[in-house]
Design goal:
This protein is mainly alpha-helical. It has 6 helices and no strands.
Length: 121
């Protein structure tokens, strides 16, 4: 006797029969309940900032450092190529050899690169 109540339980409990009954009629969750649970879960997810997502996409600080290094090196080689560098377009025959005096306008101000450098320095 517990708390003044008589406990009545059969001497033998058939566990297999209880499990078979439970397997025969499994409980189903309604679509509305599943949608509410999903909405609540999305509401409590932390929102990451845009820059953190971009940093994670490029591989973290090491990946960002590699991208910055490659960008700076590519920019430097594009602006001041080594003296013995051959124009890659010459290999495909799409560009003619150009003398250094005929450089295109890179500054957007009508000056050539050499004029701009001599006025700056």
């Amino acid at each position: 006797m517990h708390w003044g109540m008589m406990m009545t339980q059969p001497d033998r409990f058939d566990l297999e029969a209880a499990l078979e009954t439970a397997r025969a009629a499994p409980p189903h969750m309604s679509a509305a309940l599943a949608a509410r649970i999903g909405d609540d879960a999305l509401h409590y997810l932390p929102r990451e900032r845009l820059w953190r997502r971009i940093l994670a996409a490029v591989g973290g600080p090491a990946g960002l450092g590699g991208l910055v290094t490659a960008t700076v090196a590519g920019f430097w080689l594009g602006v001041a190529p080594p003296a013995q560098t051959v124009d890659p377009l010459l290999f495909f025959g799409t560009a003619d050899a150009v003398a250094e005096e005929d450089m295109t306008d890179l500054t957007g101000s009508g000056w050539t690169v050499f004029e701009f450098a001599s006025e700056e320095g």
